[in-house]
Amino acid sequence: MLTQSQSTAHELGDAGAGFDLDSGAHREKARARRRRLKNRLVGYGLLTPAASVFILFFYLPALYLFYLAFYHWSVLSPIAHFVGFKNFVTLVHQPLFWRSLENSAYYTLVMIPATTFLALGIAMLLRDGLTARRGGVWRAAVFLPHVTPVVATSIIWVWIFNPHFGLANAILGFAHLPRLGWLESTRWALPAVMIDSLWHSLGLYVIIFLAGLSRVPRELIEVASLEGAGGPRIFRRIIWPLISPTTFLVVVLASVNTWQAFSQIYTMTGGAHGGAGGPAFATTTDALLVFQTAFTYFHFSLAAAMSLVLFLIILALTMVQKWISDRIVFYR
Known about the structure:
flat
């Protein structure tokens, strides 16, 4: 039997061992917390420069724009006067504002399907050639227009669409088709801008579709071919469902980019063609009207209200597309 002193020593020894284990676990937890804190500080430090740019040049101006839409402010007066919804009421009674929305809607509704189907078609043609010897050359050729300067290429397109000696009318004449007025015509000015925008942006969406098509298992296509399925059925039953997330991404990007199109319209319809947005406001879109209202007529509060309306339209369009995608997009 253990004496009372020996029993007490054993109890103290067990308590000391437990204390050592608890203190070791506590030190390990403390070191883990310090590592996590260090990793967070490093992450925040790396994120700070980019976040500062976004905050200074995007979020703060966006908040100030929202504030300015409900005030009357002039560059000649530092004091802003609260006017509530007066700026929006003024927009409702402006025929040019409704004309700009109509042009923007027409531009967007034509560009979205044209961009999506043309990009998908070109991507399907290039898909099998990517592994060929000159596959990289074709990809670069398709993507090159997207990285060219918008203003410089738009000036070239102005010469192409010149109604007197431009290349576009020369091609129409060679095909025995009637020559068009293009940028000097109220009917054909906006389609001319669409052609330039389509040429400039198509390469980006082709590359996105190629990335989506690369994730389609070739085994499924081969099995379907062996079972007797033709090309249209394989595309409809296999390829299209698997690239539906990619298609949704392309549609959203095309919607946002086309609704706020500015550079091509401003460059191609300015100068000798009656000022940006001409002729006769045939190419005046909402984004262009915002710029002209703010920096040509100096109605900054009215331009802020237009910008807020433009933001709400794009937000609503994106939400509708998201609602549709939840029902037809297949995520695997």
